[in-house]
Amino acid sequence: MDEHWSVDGHRHFKAAGIRQVAYVPDAGLTKLIERCREDNEIETVMCATEEEGIGLAAGAWLAGQKAAVLMQSSGVGNTINAIASLITSAHFPLFTIVTMRGQWGEGNPWQVPMGQAVAPVLEAVGVKTFQADTAADVSPMIEAGLRMAYSTDQAIAVLVSQRVIGSKVWVAGSSEGKQ
Amino acid sequence: MTDFILRRREILKAALADRGDTLFVTGLGSATWDLASLGDRPENFYLWGAMGNAAMIGLGLAIARPDRRVVVITGDGEMLMGLTSLSTIGARRPKNLAICVLDNERYTETGRQPTATGLGTDLAAVAAACGFPQTATLRTEADAARLGDLLLRNAGPVMAVAKVVDETLPMAVPPRDGSYLKTRFRANLLGERSATLP
Which of A65, A165, B8, B132 has CB 3.0 to 4.6 Å from B64, enough for a Cys bridge? Predict the structure, then answer.
């Protein structure tokens, strides 16, 4: 296995001129969030809910800065009106990376419905989705997604499969199960 | 019932008389009409939707342009929908951001149904509890005389809640094409060339 996709992801952020990164933490995003937090040229904003990140990205763009929004698939459900009503209505660019749950090898039944709905729901409100099913897909999709979002004023989501992140095996009595 | 005396457009007009090149974001509905009633300008980004997002758009702007004052004008219903953003802004604490809630304790646009600000939620107290260094609830003319300093000059993040009369005012309708409002705002701030080239 080569180095983690977040190394390339952060490099693409820099090359694209990303200056603000909004996030709600997820285990699969930890390394990318840390790289962004350690970067003095990127302002990271920890959000209480993913919808906030959509507003932040629009505000940044109004002032000429590019942003990225990082979230887990559950959080996509919190963003839909903001994306439809603000991003799509006013033709704002948007770039988001979504780490998936509720698909490949999921062990928590409460994650499955939202995880399965992510791509069709995003597409229904005008977001183009790039679905990264292997680790090798992630870096080129981030690079291409950033270019497309900010060159064509489109909303782009890179969906990083649970197959890439690794699905949690739930064992009764284990203290390591994650939400 | 409430017995508020402050009139939303009068206090805004007085407070913003010397707004200069301040950047504004308005929450949908009454707050958009209120700011538009003072005269349309390219530094105003009016929301016609995206309820609950005004404060976060203000934060994105304030972070990107620490050299400029950013003021969010919104209503109590819109602010309640974006209540979590007060926690996020309180954690980030941008000095150049101020939020003004014109609080009539009503969802005005949908038929004047009561909001939670009339039933116990104190938005200035919420902001203070989230770490805003400057918060105020304005009820009297003397209170309202502070609004200009709160919004335009005091170190932020500022939360200024003005308890205002529930009244029917003429709609002052600004442009509603979001793409136009966005590009106009960017062209004014960044220059037309930077705002329109990829």
Answer: A65
Give CA–CA dist B51/B68, Å, rounded.
24
**Chain B touched by A92 (CB under 8 Å):** yes
Q: Which residues of B touch A47 (CB under 8 A)?
A: 56, 84, 88
Q: By the 8 A CB rule, do A8 and A32 touch? A: no
Chain A residues touching residue B45 (CB < 8 angstroms)? 62
B94-142: per-residue pLDDT in tens? Answer: 999 999 999 999 999 999 999 999 999 999 999 999 999 999 999 999 9
Q: Which two tokens stand for residue A36?
A: 């962004």
| Mutation for testing the A interface, residue in B47, B56, B189 having most A CBs under 10 Å | B56
Q: How distant, in Å, are the alpha carbons of A64, B27, B58 from that of B183? A: 11, 19, 17
Torsion angle of the four alpha carbons B61, B65, B70, B75, in this order, in degrees rounded to the nearest 10: 10
CB spacing of B64 vs A86 below 8 angstroms: no
Cis before A109? omega within 30: no
Among A10-24, A162-176, B88-102, the least confident range = A162-176
- Give the pTM: 0.95
Tell me how far apart the alpha carbons of residues A159 and B58 are, in angstroms, rounded to a whole number: 28
CB contact under 8 Å between A90 and B179, yes or no, is yes
